[in-house]
Amino acid sequence: MIDELQGLKHLDVLTLTVRSTSCFQNLDSHHILLTCTLILCLRGDYSENPSSCLDLSPVAMANMKYLNTLQIEGLRDVDSSWKTPLENPSSFLGLQFVEVGACMNLENLEWLVFAANLIDLNVHSCYGMTTILGSNTKKAYTLTPFAKLTVLRLSRLPYLWRICEHHLPLPFLKKILISGCPALTRLPLNSSSAQTSNLIIEGEEKWWNRLGWEDQAARNAFLPCFRPCKGKNFPGTLMPQYSQKAFNNIF
User: Residue limits of the Disease resistance protein At4g27190-like leucine-rich repeats domain (predicted)?
Assistant: First the structure.
C-alpha cells in the first residue's frame, strides 16, 4: 500500500492511521509520503493486546515537517517510545493539534516543549500520567512551552498532580477544561500569566476549591474565569475538528 501511494506524483496531503511499528518504520524510506503527511493517528490495539506499543522512528518524525495534527491512542507502552524525538526538536514545529488518550504507562508529554506552535491539547484516560511537561523542561530548554496554546483539555487523569513545575506566560489561552483530575492542585498560572478577561476555566467546584495559588491576588484575578460543571469527559471528539482546521491551514 505504501509503495502504491509513493507512485502518486501529485499527492499534496496525506492522512495516516498507523497501528503497527513495522508500518511506521516503512515510512522512513518514503520521503514524499513523509513530507505530505498532515494528520497522523497512532493507535494501539489495547483491547486485545495489553502490551501494545509503537516504537516511533526518529527518522520518520524528523521528516514530517508539515505534520499538523497528531493523535495517539491506546499505546500502553508508549513511555519509552517518545524519548527519541527530544533529540530532534524540529520534528514538532508544525504541530498545532494534539490528542493523547488511553496510554496507560505514559508519565508525561515532555516532548511537547518543542511543539512551539501548539494551539489545542487534549489529554485523557492516561492513568499513569503525573505531569504534562517533565520536571527538567525549564532548566534544559530555552523554548517557552505552550506560547500559542489556546485550549487545554485534561480529563480522567487521576494521578496528574501538575502541568509543569513553573508558571508559564500563556497570552493566547482561552479555555482550560479539567475533569477527573483530583490530584491536580495547581495550574501554571499567576496574575501575569494570561489575559483573564478572555479566559474560561471549567471544572468541578470541589476541584476548584482545592486549587493552590501563588497568592491571594492571583486567586482573585482568576476567580471570575471559573465556570463550575459536573464531571465531563473530552475524549474522541476533536479529530474531525482538527482535520478541518488542518486542511484550512493548507488551502
Answer: 76-187
- Measure the N-to-C terminal CA separation of the chain; round to a whole number of Å: 26
Say what the pTM is.
Answer: 0.83
In 3D space, the residue among 194, 110, 203 whose CA is nearest the CA of residue 153 turns out to be 203
Reported as a single tens digit per residue, the pLDDT across 23-56 is 766 766 677 777 788 888 888 765 545 445 565 5
3-class DSSP state of 156 = coil
For 136-169, the pLDDT digits (tens) are 555 545 678 999 999 999 999 999 999 998 899 9
Q: Rounded distance, CA 48 to CA 29, Å?
A: 30
Q: What pairs with residue 122 in β-bridges? A: 99, 153
- Between CA 93 and CA 117 the distance in angstroms is 6
